[in-house]
Request: fold
Amino acid sequence: MIVRDMHKSILPKRDQNVKAVIECKGVGIDFGGLCAVNDFNILIKKEEICGLIGPNGAGKTTVFNLLTKVYTPTRGVMYLNDKNTKSMNSIEANQSGIARTFQNIRLFKNMTVIENVLVGLHNEENCGIFESIFRLSKYWRSEDLLKKRAMELLSIFGMTNVADHISSSLSYGSQRRLEIIRALATRPSILLLDEPAAGMNSSETVELMENIKKIRDSFGIAILLIEHDMNLVMGVCETIGVLNYGVLIAKGTPREIQNNPVVVEAYLGKAKE
Amino acid sequence: MKNNLSMPVRYVINILSIIFFLVLGNFLLKIGLFGRAQVSTIIQSGIYIILAVSLNIVVGYLGHIPLGQAGFMAIGGYAAAFFWKSGILGGELAFIIGIIIAGISSGLFGFLISMPAFRLNGDYFAIITLAFSEIIRSVLINFPKVTGGAQGLKRIPKYSNFFCVYSIVIIVCTLIHLIMKSKHGRAILSTREDEIASKSCGVNIRRYKIFAFTISAFFTGIAGAVYATNQGIIAPSEYGFMKSVDVLVMVVLGGMGSMIGSITAAAFLASLPLFLQSVMKSFNNYRMIVYSFILIIIMVFKPSGLFGNYDFSFSAILERIINRLFVSKNEKVHENL
Amino acid sequence: MHRFNWLLIFSQFINGLQLGSIYALISLGYSMVYGIIMLLNFAHGDIIMVGGYIALISILNRFGPFISVFFAISGCAVISVLIERLAYRPLRKASKTSLLITAIGVSIFLQNLAQLIFSANGRPFPASSILKNNKMRFGKINVNSVTIITILISIISMLLLVILVHKTKLGKAMRAVSEDLESGQLMGINIDKVISFTFILGSSLAGIASIMFCCQYPLVNPTMGYMIGMKAFIAAVLGGIGSIPGAVVGGFTIGFVEIFVSAIGFSAWIDVAVFAVLIIVLLIRPFGILGRRLTEKV
Reply:
């Protein structure tokens, strides 16, 4: 369905020759007295698929919120495409190449499917307010371009036929897919997926695995995902990090993680036998 | 999508129907079909339509409740009245320049107020806009040398008639429509739907909030100017909380986020006293009680208002008719985005 | 002025305390309700007007001062519970926007109903039949007895409230619900009962404040609640909405600001000053002086 490298040519310039898409050094955040994430170090290279696993409440979503600057970290430094994100807000973080989906789907519910994608494409075309109000030729050109691009993106998941539906009327799985498309529309260099397979059946999950790889290949972007479905994580990720109580307790390839006693303990508790 | 009307055709249809409406309305009034009370109600309705559609930008599209619209009306009214009373210009040109001055001064205030106000959300936003409008009113009362104090301004030249009021109505509605159906409009709507998701899409939501509030203030100021010239007298006491609520009721009744809803509700509520006058003389005493009931009942039973967020498009309806008549039945009509 | 007039300053301070304690009593009602159901209870100000009219009518019908005050306070409580039942309860799951609009609707309804029944003109309040206003002298300082009684009663009511909220089971439930309504419900707290209790507490305080206010400014009219309510709400926001000590701090702040502005000869600008204080404080601390920052969960 996706032609390889179809989308690569249009990636913004910023993505060329960076050392790491994301690099965190000793990042941590406290909520009141509670230390939600502490001393979090990670390095994600270009076009890498990385998984983040851990028990409930381990701080995985908090890590996402830190990366996208929904929360400001109390400690540590984060680099996004070699740029320090210290002074960025979440809008600037997105513009410098990070896009995400949410655990509890956050679509623009009363807007149509294509409008959702068009909001994702917001920074794509620079058409001012004046040009829009008076419908100058620039408006028509940019609007046509945006719609074409939106349809192209929707075609990744074969959703062009529902483009005019209200997004809340979609099935759960389609809503998750639409959220991914909307995130991709912002031309990220890394895509964060927060439990993309939640609520999907096994055949849908297999399809999702395929799609995650396809997205990586055709867009040439890195992907960081949080997931509880171990088949998906082990099947698709090249590296995996394990979080427990806000601390990264293990890092490595799927095989290393599977055989790591610390990880097994975190998930299942200490062996009694 | 071959059975869609192309955009230029849509525009031509819309422009023609607007001209037809204005000319017909003017003609009907000229031949004296309506009495004086009716004409003044029609003009009053026009003013309330402008107020309602411009409040709808913030309430319906942006999802915030400002309670200070009366303040912007006051600024627009006073600014235009100063200009008109100064007598620098006369005639039609003075009217046009007056309302532009009103719009700009009110929009400027809106811009200044929105910067601090949007640091707050929800109820805090409502209360801070109310606070600003009360400040505006106090200032108007406390500088009697300039503003006429509590007595207000009298003998404002009268420019309002059906044609010019409804031309403004149409221009304002069209401008709002054009803004909302562009990428900027989508950005405003996305802010209403989900601020965090909107930020994660790289939309500068603060800028769009300020933008939406400013244009809302701009158009409200224009309505305030038309209101002032229509009344001939303005005083600070008119621009209280109740005036803001008056308009809010219209937007809520029509359905937050629906322009056609705001228009219908504004026209209906503004002409209600005329219809009910014959039934009961003292409707004005009950008016606010009825309004408050409308607010509560709608919120309890149908929070989306009469029209939900349905928006009316004349050309879309025409398109549907054409499709039904000429194109094979089962093809789906693609609404224009 | 070469020399500070300390006597004048002291008597103004007392006046500030009096006005501030009235505002504090009212703003407690706003703050508690907001803390529990996140509703800006616009109608709370109009409860004061209701209290004023009930007291007025009871006195005119020759009920004694105690019974009149009792009627006023319980009348406020009953009406606010009714409002909660009929208007707010059906909307508990609705959006905050809907709740706010409903509250505005209720406020307008009460104002205009009062206008219909009692006419828009104000009526003199027979303050002397509730509280005789005697001049009291402390050394060189003249103080009205009403002022002293207002301050004392307010402080007593606030202390009672604190005891109620911290020492009783219902108070504990209230605090739990204001932390998290849903988990409170899961712990077996009867939400309806807690919310009604909150409304009763808040409006009783408003009833007391209403009597105090009418004794000081003996005039009742249908829209009297609008401005007082508005300022008390500002006080609640200023102190940090949802926080009981915050409401008290905010109330006294507003009271002192008003007295100060009128003392330096700008009484026409009182409202502007209050609003300006609100705007400034909110810009510096968007969650109020003693409030906590609420963050949306992602």
